[in-house]
Amino acid sequence: MRPPRSPSRGIVLVLLLALSALIFWAATPVPSRGADAGTLQQEIDRGRARERTLASAAQQLGRLAGDAQRSVDSMRGRLTDAQARVSRSEGALAQTRADLEAARRRALRLRERLDRDSATLAANLRASYVAGRPDLVSVMLNSRGFAQLIDRMEFVKRAQQRNAQIVGAVRRGRTAALGARRHLALLLPGREQLVAQLRVERDAALQMAAALERRQATLERARSARLQALSSTKADRRRAERALTRLQQQQRSAAVDMRGPGGPWAIPWVVVQCESGGQNLPPNAAGASGYYQFIPSTWQALGGSTPNAYQASKAEQDRLAARLWAGGSGARNWDCAGIVGII
């Protein structure tokens, strides 16, 4: 049977005794954050829930970071290919420019040579005109015999053919050089355009790779932050578990510790301290009295020898309190057992 509390004096007494119990417990090492088992358990449960959330988030971010890294690797491969194409096209463009410049220089040299050969040929023609072109009669008259005549005629013929061949070769070479120059000049814009297009593609791939790398780095930082928070949360939860374990050990010790001022006691001292402060109190407004704050009906039901508990000896009160406590199974008969955390 639970002893009722008085609405005024009893409540004040309970609060004062509860405060005394807390001061008593302060002498032992307890966690600073909440000496209440329920509060610590709630903190542990919240920590575990947060751990699950953070672990799930870190795992998801890890998958996303892995996907981002694979995308970065793929884009880097594309960037390498694009740079190789740019390099090949730039090489071809440089070669075309070099070939075009060489064709220009060759055409210039051939033009200069044609000019020189043309001038030489013109000079020879002028000399032949001034000296008079040798005819067959003059060659025959000036020749010393038939053999010399044949030699002179062949020489004149070869000289004319050689001059014509030189001029023709130079003209053909210059025509070929001009043709090559025109071909290369037509080829150059297309190659320049191709290089420009490949550079744009290369730069776009570079920007995409940089963006993917930034995303991957952001995901890694977010994952690292979640893992750090997870580690911190686990540490806080473990500290709360240790604090709860210490508190439960203290409560278990208090539940069986009958020692205290004026004792030994029939029930744990912390309950006695909360109920009466270890004093044989007269009845309060609810009629509860004595060291253990029995109400008259409970006292009489247990076989008390006096009308009120405080009128009996401490030994009788101890005996009946021990019977009601029943090794702890009757702890609910005292409100203070719940206040001090035994139940």
UniProtKB/TrEMBL annotation:
Ranges in a coiled coil: 86-120, 195-250
Domain Resuscitation-promoting factor core lysozyme-like residue range list: 271-336
Signal sequence segment: none
Keywords noted in UniProt: Coiled coil, Hydrolase
UniProt cross-references to Pfam families, sorted A to Z: Transglycosylas
GO molecular-function term, one example from the UniProt record: hydrolase activity
Protein name, per record: Unannotated protein
Lineage per the UniProt record: unclassified sequences, metagenomes, ecological metagenomes
